[in-house]
Each structure stands twice: as C-alpha cells, then as structure tokens.
Amino acid sequence: MPAIETTDLTKEYGDTVAVSALDLDVEAGSVFGFLGPNGAGKTTTMRMLTGLVRPTRGRATVAGADVTDRDALRPRIGYLPEEPPLYDHATAYEQLDYAAGLRDLDPERASDRVDDLLDRLDLPPEDAAGRIADYSKGMRQKVAYVQAVLHEPDVVFLDEPTSGLDPRAARTLRELIVELADGGTTVFLSTHILPVVEEVADEVGILYDGELVARGSPESLERRAETGETRSLEDAFLELTTDEPVAGPTTGGGDGSDG
Fold first, then answer.
1. Chain segment 74-115, per-residue pLDDT in tens
2. Residues 6+ apart with CB under 8 A from 50
3. I need a surface site. Which of 22, 87, 141, 205 has the fewest CB within 10 A?
4. Which pTM was predicted?
5. What is the dotted CATH code of the domain comprising 4-240?
6. Per-position b or e across 27-64, b if 16+ CB within 10 A of its CB
C-alpha cells in the first residue's frame, strides 16, 4: 500500500480551482519532490494531505488514514509548513517539550532525540535555552524541523525546509532527510531549490495550474527536455511550467513561496 495515495483530489475556492483531479501515489520510505511555480497549488495540496483543508471532492489517504479523519491522521504525520507556528515567548526546549507532551512521547526518549537533532543542526544548548522571539529565521527553521519529526512519523511533509538555513545547516538537513527515508519514513518535500530535489528525491512530481503535468525520477524528467538532450532538472521544470520553450541552459535555483 502506498504511503500517500490520492484519487481525483480536488480543491475549489468558488470559481477558482486550486488543485484539479490529482491522482498520486508515493511509495513508503521514499523522498518525493513536489515542484511547481508560485500559485500552482502545492501548499493547498499539502494542507489537504495533512488534514488542514478539506477537499472539495476526491479522496486521499496518508499512512493508511483518510485525510478527513484528523484523529487517525495526526499521530502518523509530521508537517513543517513554510511559516512554522512557534511560540515566541518559549525557548526551543520549552517548545519541543510541549510538542512531545502533546504527542504523549516518553519524556526521556524525546529529550535525547531533541538533544541529538539540535546538535546535528548546530543549535547549541545556550541558544536553545533562549527565547524563540530572538531567533533568526534559520534558528526558527531548525526548531520547527525537530518538532515535525520528533515523534518519528510515518510520513513527514516539508515545505521549503532549507529556507533561512546557512549552507552547512542546509547540507545537514539534506542528510537528515535521506536518513529519514532510509529509516522507513516517507518524505514529501516541496521546495523551489531544485538542486536539493536533484540530490535527495527518488521521484518528482510537477504541479502547474493545479494539475500534475509530469512525474518521474529527476533523471527521467531531465531527459524530457525538448532538445532531446539531458539537461538540468531546472531546465525540465521551466519547460514543463511555461507555454514558451526554454532557450538554452540555465543555472542556479531560487527560493520563494507557494500559493
């Protein structure tokens, strides 16, 4: 059984179709890169799959739970949204201790896991004991990532997880994502930084105007370039999300937000 499975998953806001008839299955223990330009419907899709937004029609299951059954879904998933909700008045330790309590985790095991992950992400104890209100964007992102994976979910959804991280922390996070998948956790990853997807994703889906326009391994999508040559994932992405052909290779990768 796939870790994530959707059939005709659709979300409409009045006359606007944010996500249209999405059919998708994601293998357990894999990293799925979910790409698309701003406004393509990526965040709406993730919010449906995490039970935060109810589909207009269609159905979806995540880790065997129907997405409309939030009580069954919640313990099986983790979610790092692009703007994670953190308590500014709390310290990182207090935030994560509170999250562990909500999940009814063993306090000792949770504390050891927090210490290990914060150490891996280079957030030292003296900083973790400071108020989140004083944190940089990158520090907040580290705490939010730990919160999303603390309970060792079956499926974790990551929306722009490297946003605000310095190169060293971003590299560590990519390593942690691969380790999650190697340990059996399914990672649903949305980002505008395409080299991250090329490095860690087993499979990629590209959403455009609410519709899934392509799916496959990063290498297979690169080979779909109109020239017939193997090019970068960025080139393939641009060709699949525009009505105009892309002339010549491009370089780099940008960051941004999804609608």
1. 999 999 999 998 999 999 999 999 999 999 999 999 999 999
2. 62, 67, 73, 77, 79, 157
3. 87
4. 0.89
5. 3.40.50.300
6. eebbbbbbbbbeebbbbbbbbbbbbebebeebebbbbe
